[in-house]
Design goal:
The protein has 324 residues and is α/β, with parallel strands linked by helices. The chain contains twelve helices and 15 strands. The longest helix is centred in the C-terminal third of the chain and has 16 residues.
Length: 324
């Protein structure tokens, strides 16, 4: 089969190589899946760079979420067992963690429902305790992670402010249902948030970016607000001024979604059931910015790393003749 493999760490476009390899063999408790679609996530770029919290042995195949097909024909969502990641024709995955792909979503949308939406749901509901009527500020609102948070925030009854970079991304955030969109390339984020909220600020901030985005968040978070730290796509890891959090009475809340799979798998299943219901009702629908063939996976991972994409890029092996 064909699989993209990383033989040495570095930038995705430079270190990912499309190889011909044997199909992976399931270990105890695992199943082999045919990849129908594989979502491209920022952690895939970090894996290529050797900067992720998990460092699989070289060579390895990145790709942390897929929609796949079991040998008996079931469509499922899975996190492939590294080092055999999703940018390949076949993967292995833990059988106990397989989730049914929602009928309301096609393969690419189903692949994109998993990590981004689970992260959004746990972040907004379990960590930040978002309440109906509160104001939610979402950074990178047109990206794969941010777009999920926008939809989930609206589903929860929040007023959603989206931050995006450039006219095209701002238009995409507007189409997702944001009540206000701020173009960070031309507008002062903190000032616009305060103006829109009558000086109160945002009750919850969803930040997968870090760096300057976090600095703006601290300037416009409301009394008893919560800044939800989801990731650092900008590459800048903030050093929060804790005296500022004390003076303004706000919380800095961390989220590592992967820990729930290890420590509370029942909660992951319950979340998937809720996401499936929301998808069936049309309340959430993953924003798939582009479906790319298997041959384009390395370029897709690089584009996500560079922050030039809108929505979730999804690799579809069958699009260029790959797969069985």
């Amino acid at each position: 089969m064909q699989a993209w493999r990383v033989h040495t760490h570095g930038e995705p476009r430079e270190v990912m190589r499309l190889d011909e390899v044997p199909e992976p063999q399931p270990r105890d408790g695992e199943v082999r899946l045919r990849v129908r679609a594989a979502g491209v996530n920022f952690p895939d770029a970090l894996l290529c760079r050797g900067q992720y919290q998990i460092r699989p042995p070289l060579p390895f195949t990145p790709g942390v979420e897929i929609c796949g097909e079991t040998e008996d024909g079931r469509r499922v969502i899975a996190n492939p067992a590294l080092p055999h990641g999703g940018f390949a024709e076949y993967v292995t995955a833990p059988e106990a963690a397989l989730l049914p792909a929602p009928d309301a979503l096609d393969d690419a949308e189903a692949a994109a429902l998993h990590i981004g939406y689970q992260t959004g749901w746990f972040g907004l509901h379990r960590r930040a305790r978002l309440q109906p009527g509160e104001t939610l500020l979402v950074h990178a609102a047109a990206g794969g992670v941010g777009s999920a948070a926008v939809q989930l925030g609206k589903a929860a009854g929040a007023t959603v402010i989206g931050v995006a970079g450039g006219k095209d991304k701002a238009a995409a955030a507007q189409a997702l249902g944001c009540d206000l969109v701020i173009d960070r390339t031309t507008e002062d984020v903190a000032a616009r948030v305060k103006e829109f909220t009558g000086g109160r600020g945002a009750d919850v901030v969803y930040d997968p970016v870090g760096g300057d985005a976090y600095a703006a968040s601290a300037k416009c978070v409301a009394f008893e607000g919560r800044i939800l730290v989801v990731g650092f796509a900008s590459g800048g890891i903030p050093s929060p001024a804790l005296n500022h959090a004390l003076i303004k009475n706000y919380s800095i809340v961390g989220l590592h979604w992967g820990l729930y799979a290890a420590k509370d798998p029942a909660a992951v299943l319950a979340c998937h059931a809720e996401l499936t219901r929301l998808a069936a009702e049309g309340v959430v629908k993953p924003l798939v910015g582009e479906r790319v063939p298997l041959s384009g996976a390395a370029d897709a991972v690089q584009r996500v790393a560079d922050g030039t994409t809108t929505g979730r890029l999804v690799v579809v092996p069958g699009a260029d003749g790959g797969g069985a």
